[in-house]
Amino acid sequence: MRTAVVLAGGDAIDVPPPVPLPEGALVVAADSGLHRAEALGLHVDHVVGDLDSAAPDAVDRAVAAGATVDRHPGAKDYTDLELALEYAAQQGAQHVVVLGGAGGRLDHLLGNVLVLTSARFAAIDVEAFVAEAHLTVVHGGRPPVELRGSPGSLVTLLPVGGTARGVVTDGLAYRLDTEDLTPGTTRGVSNVMVGTAASVALDQGTLLVVQPDGGTGAAS
């Protein structure tokens, strides 16, 4: 399975990264995500975006080290993160790990979180670490997605783009058994890990699974 690591700008940089990054992963920097890559000591394969936030000398260093650059105009139809995800998909990534993306404008944050759930990326296992939260996208009709965390840590299930039908959970305190979650309701908020592993699957639709404390904290 080819993995791509997509680095976004925004929130404070985690050193080391929140999860071990696989060797040989495709590394894509979305604009100032290039600075995050440098802080983590990651070799960047591709830089994409309008580059209004990436320092020119950082771009030059990336190019000198072998990175390709896809510069877009400021007036464009997609955020830098969406462009980075599209590139990862075009390169055959089957698993994408996004690092960063919070700390800026609220509309950018919401747009970038929602684009993770796009049907265009339904064939890819997408997860993201945004500020303290771990996000996992679950699409209908696919194998159960495994979650990891500490007993008592929070897990929220948010339906995106329509009703999530036939939701089945295992390892969560408030179990769902082929039930539906409807957008605009909060039934899926603040579930709780029973042990250190859980799983989520559904028949149709899309769920955004949010572990607000990254799976390490205790429910309150």
Give me the count of strands. 14
* CATH architectural grouping of the largest domain: 3-Layer(aba) Sandwich
CATH superfamily of the largest domain: Thiamin pyrophosphokinase, catalytic domain
Shape: globular
Keywords:
220 residues, alpha/beta, Rossmann fold, Jelly Rolls, four-stranded antiparallel β-sheet, 17% helix, globular
Describe this structure in words.
This protein has 220 residues and is of the alpha/beta class. It folds into 2 domains: 3-131, Rossmann fold (3-Layer(aba) Sandwich), CATH 3.40.50; 138-211, Jelly Rolls (Sandwich), CATH 2.60.120.320. It is 17% helix and 32% strand. The chain contains 4 helices and 14 strands. The chain has helices spanning 33-40, 56-64, 80-90, 106-115; strands spanning 3-7, 26-30, 46-49, 68-71, 95-99, 125-130, 133-139, 145-148, 154-159, 164-170, 177-181, 191-192, 197-201, 206-211. The strands form 2 sheets. The protein has a 10-stranded mixed beta sheet, sandwiched between helices. Strands 8-13-10-11 form a 4-stranded antiparallel beta sheet, with no helix packed on it.
Q: Could you provide a short overview of the structure?
A:
The chain is of the alpha/beta class and 220 residues long. 17% of the residues lie in helices and 32% in strands. The protein has helices at 33-40, 56-64, 80-90, 106-115; strands at residues 3-7, 26-30, 46-49, 68-71, 95-99, 125-130, 133-139, 145-148, 154-159, 164-170, 177-181, 191-192, 197-201, 206-211.
